[in-house]
Design brief:
Layout: E1 3-7, E2 10-13, E3 16-19, E4 33-37, E5 46-51, E6 56-62, E7 65-70, E8 75-80, E9 85-89, E10 94-98, E11 105-110, E12 119-120, H1 123-131
Antiparallel strand pairs: 1-9, 2-3, 4-11, 5-10, 5-12, 6-9, 6-11, 7-8, 7-10
The structure holds dTDP-4-keto-6-deoxyglucose.
The site of dTDP-4-keto-6-deoxyglucose has 10 residues, from strand 4, strand 5 and strand 6.
């Protein structure tokens, strides 16, 4: 599956920790957009779509949430709970996020600007699309 966990080096000292994100370095693309979600309500499921072209790296900078990732053949579930870990999600992966902790701040870096026409929001259409990739 076209996903990968990327270790992010934390620079720690007696003041605390700092992590730097650099395009084409620890983030393997040109960063065009950054967004983050927070104050996610209990029991909420987000995502439920795939992207035709978009690549992203998601980081739980605070708290935790779970991901379901599905490439049309295989389905994996994982927990993001470490600000020193990025989840690279390539194009054509169905994603769902759930079990957000109350304090969760999920930050996402993306290689394209927001474009609604890049979304596949219907799971059956997604399966059709990945057949032709
Ligand atoms: C993804 C997962 C991980 C914008 O106006 N600009 C943006 O850059 C984004 C991402 C969203 N929006 C608007 C569109 C909706 O009115 O914000 C609202 C919530 O977006 P959405 O329902 O798409 O949020 P999620 O959490 O279902 O999905 C988001 C990303 O959209 C998506 O690309 O992979 O997070």
């Amino acid at each position: 599956m076209k996903i990968k966990l990327i270790p992010l080096q934390a620079h720690g000292d007696d003041r605390g920790s700092l992590i730097a994100l650099e395009e084409e370095n620890n983030i393997p693309f040109e960063i065009k957009r950054v967004y983050y979600m927070f104050s996610t309500k209990d029991g909420v499921r987000r995502g439920l779509h795939a992207h035709k072209r978009l690549k992203q790296v998601a980081i739980a900078v605070r708290g935790s949430c779970r991901f379901v990732l599905d490439d049309g053949t295989e389905r994996v579930e994982l927990l993001l709970d470490n600000p020193a870990q990025g989840l690279l999600i390539d194009s054509c992966i169905w994603r769902e996020m759930y079990d957000f902790s109350e304090d969760c701040v999920l930050m996402v870096l993306a290689d394209c600007l927001y474009d609604e026409s890049d979304y596949i929001r219907d799971y059956e259409k997604f399966l059709e699309e990945v057949k032709h990739v």
